[in-house]
């Protein structure tokens, strides 16, 4: 594959330095392509292009911009299989997941926000002698920074509402997974989106991400990534009062009550724990089980985990692929070693499991650990890999206390046949989102985001439109 290039002002351009990053395939360790190691001068050029394009783009109507989003959706949909294949290769995730989740959602993000823009109406508040109407103006130039686990899914989730509301943007995807961001730029080029509306700079966090957030001509920052990076982003953006949305890490609980439907719960909790090799911010990496059902659930859960097929990501039968990088694999394995020191017992996994022919890749067997204190580091810190800890509880209050006993507050799930209990427990959990008897069941209209160290702000549906715009009230006195 050819070296990648930045996309600035409607052109694929060389970066200013002569330095490159190597993009490696997680499943094999083989070299895919070289990625520009861009620096602050590339960021300056991209921000200048975005700034120059903003007035004309911001002056279009919502429905004109919605038409552009639909053109991008159509062009992406025509490349559906290419999106899935690139995403699977770049991330190590199974091709079926890349098709059903990444390729599918990337298209529907553009279509969904096109529809929302067309329906968007000014809010009106009548007074006895005046009328207030609220308009949503563009914020200006947005910095969109995304992680490696759901590359195009998350990038499109930001680009669509950001440009839909009249902003122009500079994207900085993860250096580890640049392929579908590059594809999106090719699609944008193909549909002839006005130059400078969407720009993309490849590079690492320190060299490209940090200068982008700090750039004085950037008005808004939408960041999805780890909590430690989020702290740096917030510290850099706050003094300039930039509009800021942070979608950060999670340590989510799946709470299983004895009255659940055991079969569907086991399947649902396995999916919540291990989808994308556990590398989803919403993954239920702590399973809390009511003590009267603990033994039965644990045994069936472990059996189901052991049935998952690990292997070639391009094989349709594969359930679990590779982890993103050698260093991430080492971090996840480090947590397994820590769990042993913290008194945990491995019920399954904990080892490397390299499929034949994939010796250079980053492979790990799905791992289930019991016997850890709910206060232990492995039960409270984000591992972000195929590692689930399992803990008994004896009352609703105890389940809620364990679920809330972490610095994170992103998501969770509750499994019970008593829906009143499901709602009661859900509402007591300090997170931004909870599912009852399901997980990752997404309606794009609902708010998405976390509390505590899982982030600040909400995106999704009208919350995205609100974040990517400035609400302005105009009060007109009647005669
Ligand atoms: P990182 O925080 O390491 O990186 C996220 C992005 O930020 C990357 O593009 C990275 O660049 C960039 N970056 C790194 N340093 C800086 C900086 N100083 N200034 C600006 N940008 C910077 O996260 P990961 O990519 O490792 O992603 C995994 C994390 O993302 C997990 O914690 C996960 O929970 C979280 N996440 C949260 C989601 C949510 O919606 N809440 C959804 C998905 C993931 P580069 O990688 O090129 O160095």
TrEMBL record:
Pfam families in UniProt: Aldedh
What protein family is recorded?
A: Belongs to the aldehyde dehydrogenase family.
Cited CDD domains? ALDH_F8_HMSADH
Q: InterPro entries in the record, alphabetically?
A: Ald_DH/histidinol_DH, Ald_DH_C, Ald_DH_CS_CYS, Ald_DH_N, Aldehyde_DH_dom
Q: Where is the Aldehyde dehydrogenase domain?
A: 13-473
Q: Which residues form the signal peptide?
A: none
Instruction: Show the PROSITE patterns listed in the entry.
Output: ALDEHYDE_DEHYDR_CYS (PS00070)
Is the keyword Cytoplasm in the record?
A: no
Q: Which GO terms describe its molecular function?
A: oxidoreductase activity, acting on the aldehyde or oxo group of donors, NAD or NADP as acceptor
What name does this protein carry?
A: 2-hydroxymuconic semialdehyde dehydrogenase
Q: Which UniProt keywords apply?
A: NAD, Oxidoreductase
Q: Fetch the PANTHER family from UniProt.
A: 2-AMINOMUCONIC SEMIALDEHYDE DEHYDROGENASE
Domain of life, source organism: Archaea
């Amino acid at each position: 594959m050819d070296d990648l290039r930045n996309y600035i002002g409607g052109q694929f351009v060389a970066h200013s330095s002569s330095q490159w990053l190597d993009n490696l395939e997680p499943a094999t360790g083989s070299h895919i392509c070289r990625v520009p190691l861009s620096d602050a001068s590339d960021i300056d050029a991209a921000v200048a292009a975005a700034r120059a394009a903003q007035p004309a783009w911001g002056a279009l109507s919502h429905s004109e911009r919605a038409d552009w989003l639909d053109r991008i959706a159509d062009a992406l949909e025509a490349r559906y299989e290419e999106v899935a294949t690139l995403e699977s290769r770049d991330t190590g995730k199974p091709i079926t997941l890349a098709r059903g989740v990444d390729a599918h959602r990337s298209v529907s993000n553009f279509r969904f926000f096109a529809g929302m823009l067309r329906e968007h109406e000014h809010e009106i508040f009548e007074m006895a002698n005046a009328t207030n109407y609220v308009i949503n103006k563009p914020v200006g130039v947005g910095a969109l920074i995304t992680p490696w686990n759901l590359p195009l899914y998350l990038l499109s989730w930001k680009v669509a509402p950001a440009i839909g509301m009249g902003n122009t943007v500079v994207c900085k995807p993860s250096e580890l997974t640049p392929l579908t961001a590059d594809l999106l730029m090719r699609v944008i080029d193909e549909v002839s989106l006005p130059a400078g509306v969407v720009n993309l700079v490849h590079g690492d966090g320190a060299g490209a991400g940090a200068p982008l957030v700090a750039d004085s001509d950037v008005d808004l920052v939408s960041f999805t990534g780890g909590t430690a990076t989020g702290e740096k982003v917030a510290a850099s953006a706050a003094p300039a009062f930039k509009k800021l949305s942070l979608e950060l890490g999670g340590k989510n609980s799946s709470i299983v009550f004895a009255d659940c439907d055991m079969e569907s719960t086991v399947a649902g909790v396995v999916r919540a724990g291990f989808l994308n090799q556990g590398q989803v911010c919403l993954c239920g990496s702590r399973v809390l089980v009511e003590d009267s059902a603990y033994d039965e659930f644990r045994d069936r859960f472990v059996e189901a985990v052991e049935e998952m097929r690990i292997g070639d990501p391009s094989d349709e039968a594969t359930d679990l692929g590779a982890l993103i990088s050698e260093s991430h694999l080492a971090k996840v394995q480090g947590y397994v070693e820590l769990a042993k020191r913290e008194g945990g017992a491995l019920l399954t996994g904990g080892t490397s499991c390299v499929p034949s022919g994939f010796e250079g890749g980053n492979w790990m067997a799905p791992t289930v650990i019991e016997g850890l204190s709910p206060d232990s580091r492995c039960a409270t810190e984000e591992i972000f890999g195929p590692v689930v800890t399992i803990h008994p509880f004896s009352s609703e209050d105890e389940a809620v206390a364990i679920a809330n006993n972490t610095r994170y507050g992103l998501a969770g799930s509750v499994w019970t046949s008593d829906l009143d209990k499901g709602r009661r427990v859900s509402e007591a959990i300090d997170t931004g989102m909870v599912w009852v008897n399901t997980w990752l069941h997404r309606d794009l209209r609902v708010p998405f985001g976390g509390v505590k160290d899982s982030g600040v702000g909400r995106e999704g549906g009208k919350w995205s439109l609100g974040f990517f715009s400035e609400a302005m009230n105009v009060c007109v006195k009647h005669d």
